Amino acid sequence: MKLFDSHCHLNDACYAKDMESVIRRAQAAGVNSMMIVGITEETSREAVAIACAHPQCYASVGIHPHDARDCTPAALDRLKTLAGNPQVKAWGEIGLDFNRMYSPRKVQEEWFVRQLEVADALSLPLIFHERDSGGRFLEILNDRYKGRGREGVVHCFSGGRRELEGDLNLGLYIGITGILTIQSRGEKLRSLVSYIPSDRILVETDAPYLTPAPEKNQTSRNEPAYVRTVLLHLAKVKNEDPESLAEIIWQNTCRLFRIHEA
Q1: If both were cysteines, with which of 5, 179, 192, 246 could 34 make a disulfide (CB 3.0 to 4.6 Å apart)?
Q2: Which of 49, 60, 11, 57 is nearest to 32 (CA)?
Q3: Residue 96 half-sphere exposure toward CB, CA atoms < 13 A
Q4: Taking the complete model, does pTM exceed 0.90, yes or no?
Q5: Domains and CATH numbers, the chain
C-alpha cells in the first residue's frame, strides 16, 4: 500500500533526536508522503525546513487557535512569505477550539477569519481544527463562502452527524485519526465513517498525539508509520478492501494538496 499521513507534527521537539529513524520507519510501513503541520510561526518554519530536507515531506503554515492570542499582523506577513516555498502545500492548522480556551473566543474568531483571508489570497488549501465550537466554526465558513465550498480538511474529526454533514456540504475532506481504533473513545467516530464518501476521506496520525491501538500499548508517542494502522482499521469498519481504499485516499490527499506525482 502507498500511504499519505495527511497530518503530523514531526516539528515537535520529541522527534529532535531520532527524526531520521522515524522517517525511515514510515517509509518501511509504506508511508510515502507526510504533511508536517505548523501551529505557530516557529513550528511553521520548522515544518518548512524539514520538508525542504526530505522530498517525501510537505509543509503547512499557520497559527493554531490555542495560540491565537499571540498572533499579529506582522506574524501573518512573515507566514505569507514562508508560504511561498514550493514545499508549502496548505495553510493551517487554523480554526476554533472552545474546549480548552487557551485563547479567548473573540481572539480565536478574529485570527481565524484573518487567516482565511490570507489563505484565500494565496489560493492555498486549508487544514482546519475544530473542537466544541457549538456550530460557530461552520457558521463562519458558511457565511464566508456562501455555498461556494472551499478546499480543505477538518483534521481529527470529532463532531457528530450534524457537524459531519455541514463539513461535507462545504466540500471539505474529513481527517480520520487513531481515535477510530480506540474501543470506547472511537465508538462515535466508527458509527459515522459510513456516511463519509470514500473520495472525501483522509487518514492521519496527528503524531506525536493520538497513538492508535495496538501501538498505544507499547508507546505513548505516535509517529507517521502508524497511519497504516489507521487505514487498515478504517477499511475494516467500512468493509472495504484495504489496498483499494489506500489508493483512493492517496489520490484524495494529493488532489487536496495539489501534489502531482512525477
Answers
A1: 5
A2: 57
A3: 20
A4: yes
A5: 3-257 (3.20.20.140)
Record the cell numbers describing residue 81, joined without a space: 512569505
Per-residue pLDDT of 72-115, as tens digits, reads: 999 999 999 999 999 999 999 999 999 989 999 999 999 999 99
H or E element, residue 257: helix 242-257
Tell me, what's the pLDDT at 261?
67
Q: Which cell numbers in the block locate residue 206?
A: 496527528
Cβ atoms of residues 86 and 128 within 8 Å: no
3-state secondary structure of 9: coil
Contact between residue 127 and residue 91 where contact means Cβ atoms under 8 Å apart: yes
Question: Can you tell me which residue has the cell 461556494?
Answer: 148
Cell digits of residue 117: 483571508
- Among 60, 15, 23, 54, smallest CA distance to 39 is for 60
Q: Which residues, 6+ apart, have CB-to-CB distance to 123 below 8 Å? A: none
**Strands 173-176 and 57-61, sheet pairing:** unpaired
DSSP 8-state assignment for residue 214? T
Q: Low-confidence residues of the chain, pLDDT below 50?
A: 262
The C-alpha cell 472551499 sits at 150
Q: Tell me what pLDDT residue 234 has.
A: 98
Angle made by CA atoms 4, 252, 48, in degrees to the nearest 5: 50
